[in-house]
Amino acid sequence: MNQKYLIPLITVFVLFLAAYVGVEGAKLEWFFGIVVPYVSLIAFLVFFVLKVLGWAKSAVPFKIPTTCGQQKSLPWIKQNKIDNPDTTGGVVIRMLLEIFLFRSLFRNTKAAFARNDKNRLSYSWEIFLWVGALAFHYAFLTVLLRHMRFFMTPVPSCIKWLEWADGIVQLGLPGLFLSGVVLLAAALFLLARRLFDQKVNYISLASDYFPLFLIIAIAGTGIAMRYFTKVDIVGIKSFTMGLITLHPVPPEGVGGLFYAHVFLVSVLFAYFPASKLMHMGGIFLSPTRNMANDTRAQRHINPWNYDVDTHTYEHYEDHFRDKMIEAGLPVDKKE
Amino acid sequence: MSKNMIISGLVIFVIAVLSPFWAQAVFGDKHVVPKPELVGKAATAKKCVLDKYDMRANHMSLLDEWRDSVVRDADRRYDAVNGHSFGMSLSTGEDSCLGCHEDKAKFCDSCHVYTSVNPYCWECHTNPKEIE
Ligand code: HEM
User: Fold this and answer.
1) Domain with CATH 1.20.950.20 in chain A
2) Which CATH number applies to A3-304: 3.30.420.40, 1.20.120.450, 1.20.950.20, 3.90.1210.10?
3) pLDDT tens string A110-139
4) Under a CB-based contact definition with an 8 Å cutoff, are residues A123 and A110 in contact?
5) What is the pTM of this model?
6) Which atom of ligand 1 approaches the CA of A184 most closely?
7) Which end of chain B is more exposed for a tag (fewer CB within 10 A), N or C?
8) Binary contact (B13, A281; C-beta < 8 A)
9) Is the CB of A147 inside a 6 Å radius of any atom of ligand 1?
10) Residue A306 predicted with pLDDT over 90
11) Ligand 1: which of A230, A261, A265, A268 to mutate, most ligand atoms within 8 Å of CB?
12) CA distance A144 to B111
């Protein structure tokens, strides 16, 4: 047992119980249903913006693009325009591929000793982290967008298409949504990786486990509500629409599980700006990815440069000309 | 990246996160919670198959159960806990869903449109009112 995952696990349990008991026992619907979501949304936006502004203020002293291909060179050497771009266009393509396809994660390798008597260290391609991450992020996005049906009246048709595509397997009633299942499965896979891969386990901290447990709990409560315990969706939508139109009224008889779901979501969003989840904003600002490799064509000015008092050779000679001539040293200007 | 680009990115992000708020204010309809109307026999009948709250939250599972029972076990009667017996059918017979809730549009659809639910059942099943 290891407190690095035990503490976050217990924390998520306690958060779940707090909302569940707070609503079922203490009747604090207004607190968990109205105060917490608004505070969480405001905290999310304010601290997110502050964090990014803080990043924007920090200096970029060097150009440090990662270069995963041939740079622009002599005309007869073929440049890799996307992996080693020297133009803004190339950088934009590289960033889009990074953001939508996690391209640098795709190149992930692992080091391992061969399991035979030679015991040789070798590096091999490790694609499963990329697969898991891609599945996780797209499932999360789909679930989030599908939730917009609770926040808009009428529901826009693009959300309805998404629901149609996501429900295409038509299993059971209410129909199974693939993204919910994929989200839970991928999050569990990413957790298993941290627990059972010794090398990853060694570098995993409580702040790596906490968001995972939170998201697993959110997906778990959501799936429980939809497929097993059932909730009054019309009641819930009247409540979420109340939040959106700023006239919130807690729904009647919806039960602790719904409030636990919303509370965990609120905690996730409030915690977001303080956590590693800020890679959502950070990916846009990663200097190794968003800069063109054109250092030989364009000078990058280090903002930290101050005006250094330089002492050029001409100055030096002006200073010491007499002495230099006296000592018989060669000088550029005789006078 | 230049400061201006970062700040425009942030502005877009904040607008996107708040999109439900302004989209509802600008493009949304006035928000009214639908009241499914009990029309026809449902207006006089006192009881649905399950409790009211159970029906609201759980009628899809009930329909799933009915469907399996009819199609797999050829069992078309359902003895509900409230003592009544129902014909397990979406639309055939007086004691089916639409046999009692006679107006699908004002009952089923009022909720479904509101919550963006689009049951594919009606690709095969029919609403008796529409055939006449
Ligand atoms: C305040 C915001 C949220 C509210 C009010 C909310 C509410 C709900 C409700 C009422 C359900 C049941 C849906 C049904 O029975 O059809 C549900 C399901 C679910 N929720 Fe949320 N939720 C919120 C945010 C989130 C977030 C941020 C996530 C994480 C991605 C999430 C993940 C899920 C999942 C995985 C399900 C299972 C069913 C599905 O796939 O749609 N929820 N949520």
Assistant:
1) 3-304
2) 1.20.950.20
3) 888 888 888 889 898 889 999 999 999 999
4) yes
5) 0.90
6) 35
7) C
8) yes
9) yes
10) no
11) A261
12) 22
